[in-house]
Amino acid sequence: MTMDNLPDIITCPNCGHRYTGNYCPNCGQSTRELNRPFGEMFKDLMDTLFEFDTRFVRSIKPLLLKPGFLPAEYVSGRRATYYPPFKLFIFISIFLFALLEISSTDMISAGFVKIDATDPDSSRVDSLRSRGIITDPSDVPAILDTVVVRVGNDTVYYDYVMEGDSVDNMREIIKSLKVYSDSIPSEKWLRKRFINGITTIFESPEYSWNVFLKRVSQSLFLLLPIFALLLKFFYIRSRRFYIQHFVFSIYFHCFAFFIILFVLLASMFFDGIVQTIAGFLILLIPIYLFAGMKRFYRQSFVKTTVKFMLLSGFYTITLFLGMLGIIVLTLVLI
Fold this sequence. Notes:
This protein is mainly alpha-helical. The protein has three domains: 1-31, no CATH class; 37-102 and 207-333, no CATH class; 115-160, no CATH class. It contains 13 helices and four strands. The protein has a two-stranded antiparallel sheet with strand order 1-2. It has a two-stranded antiparallel sheet with strand order 3-4. Strand 3 (147-151) and strand 4 form a beta hairpin. Helix 4 (85-111) runs parallel beside helix 10, helix 9 packs antiparallel against helix 10 (242-269) and helix 9 (205-234) packs antiparallel against helix 13. The radius of gyration is 27 Å and the shape is elongated. It starts with 9 loop residues before the first strand and ends with a helix.
């Protein structure tokens, strides 16, 4: 073999080991560069999406305690040490939306209560008394013909039904919406579908909420590239590839979803001061973003502050418009 045919000696950016070939024999990291077509990265994702290893546990501590550290490690070449970012995002997202569906379904299902005016000591009345809706059995006839929506720790819908010929307000609302929908000309199909969607919410709030959550979970994957695009715009002079901003976006949303997941768990299993403290953890999300931007992009405090405020403002508007669009889409397609 001539000198010209000798394989190139590669220094692994993850562990520093010198080797030849496609994979580092010391840590197993591939020689392929980060900045390559999205198609190749998507194939890598599908190949390893459902694998799980100890790198997940190893990644959680820096994810929570070192903002900007994991994306900086990833783009610098030290990738084999930690769990792949997109797999981490999917893993956390699955748990978050599963928990959202379970908790919200329980709240909505438990909120529909039908009570009998002739039996003020029934278990149904007792359930309302335990929620603080009824404090005295003599109050029962006065509230039976009303529909109450109470928003406290939970969002609860109460459907009160009286015996005899009293008006059932909820059914009257649904009936009125259906009559109005029937009166809409067929050429105004969008308005008709919108009214039908509102009717479905009154008829089946549990089903409607599940559809809404499904739309939100589907749209979340659009948030990652949109957020990365905003980062690309604000750091246009950094000459970073878009994929590097995308990696930062993934890790930031992983942290945000992890915090929301923790707050949900706390609200399900604890009350009082523990639940209140857990709620304040949401404030860690913008703090984490600022610290992550400072570490990852290595700019001054002033520049990072200005870009953080602008980024937060634009992203908040994006989230608001996105949620509004999802609500309208849910009403039209439900």
